[in-house]
Amino acid sequence: MFAPGQEQLSKEQIKAGEIQASQTVRSAVAGAIMLYLSPFAVDFVKKFL
User: Which N-terminal stretch is annotated as signal sequence (predicted)?
Assistant: First the structure.
């Protein structure tokens, strides 16, 4: 696209890249939520025990 002579990606390759990017974003969001909630979970377990 930006480099001369670079080959074009097929529709399947573009779709695979979109799926991979979507999974990466979802796992990053899930990890951020888990990291945010982990101190609350540790405090809950300490109070429970």
Answer: none
Q: Is residue 25 part of a domain?
A: yes
At 4-35, the pLDDT tens digits run: 667 788 899 999 999 999 999 999 999 999 99
How many domains does the chain divide into? 1
pTM over 0.85: no
3-state SS, the chain, equals CCCCCCCCCCHHHHHHHHHHHHHHHHHHHHHHHHHHHHHHHHHHHHHHC
